[in-house]
Specification:
Distance between the termini: 13 Å
Strand content: 5-15%
Number of helices: 9
Bound molecules: BIS(adenosine)-5'-pentaphosphate, magnesium ion
Strand order of the largest sheet: 2-3-1-4-5
Helix content: 55-70%
Shape: globular
């Protein structure tokens, strides 16, 4: 079983490349952002709570994230592995995830870090905002999300570097170019 974290700031292509990865390698996609947006769409209590943070560009509390993620992850029987998209986002989330996976004997295999300039990721989200329908895809909130990433999520790079799991990927190319770089790393892992 392989467990991959697709790491990167907002708009760096985590969702886009996750789709490519699950189609080619048949891993289970776990996007905490998508899970929260589904809850909002369904009109659940959790969705309402998540929305109050997401719409401001702030992180949803860890307890809410974990409960929902755990439920999704354990509903799959004998998966080839997982691709974590937008999770973990804090040191606490990373530590809890490590504990959980190590206990099961399936630790994180690699962390692919999509390296994209701030300007480019901002432009990508602004472009996406024309059709995404995401309430957090507005100019002010995008900058807020980027600032929150720097404060709370960026320190994870050092965390995974220490574990020798961090692999930087140049995320500035076309979608296909970036996916070719990602595939190369996953193939190395499998073979
Ligand atoms: P989340 O849903 O995770 O959003 P994000 O991290 O802000 O990132 P995005 O989904 O906007 O971007 P992406 O990297 O997936 O890029 P994409 O592939 O779409 O989180 C949203 C919110 O939920 C958070 O702010 C927080 O409130 C909450 N949340 C989620 N997880 C949480 C957690 N673990 N803890 C606490 N709170 C949590 O690409 C962007 C655009 O660029 C697309 O239009 C795409 O087509 C285009 N594109 C992609 N690649 C390329 C390329 N190579 N060249 C040109 N265009 C490209
Ligand atoms: Mg995404």
């Amino acid at each position: 079983m392989i467990n991959i974290i697709l790491f990167g700031a907002p708009g760096t292509g985590k969702g886009t490349q996750s789709e490519n990865i699950i189609n080619k390698y048949h891993l289970v996609h776990l996007s905490t952002g998508d899970i929260m947006r589904e809850e909002i769409k369904k009109g659940t209590k959790i969705g309402a709570l998540a929305k109050s943070y997401i719409d401001k560009g702030l992180l949803v509390p860890d307890s809410v994230i974990f409960k929902n993620l755990y439920y999704r992850a354990t509903s799959h029987k004998n998966p080839n592995g997982f691709i974590f998209d937008g999770f973990p986002r804090t040191i606490n989330q990373a530590e809890v995830l490590d504990k959980m996976l190590n206990k099961k004997g399936f630790p994180i295999s690699i962390v692919l870090y999509l390296d994209v300039t701030e300007k480019e990721s901002f432009n990508r989200i602004m472009y996406r905002s024309q059709h995404s329908g995401r309430a957090d895809d507005t100019e002010d909130i995008i900058w807020k999300r980027i600032a929150v990433y720097h404060e709370q999520t960026h320190p994870l790079l050092e965390y995974y570097k220490k574990q020798q799991k961090l692999i930087p990927i140049n995320g500035m190319g076309t979608i296909d170019e970036v996916f070719a770089l990602i595939s190369k790393e996953i193939d190395k892992l499998i073979n």
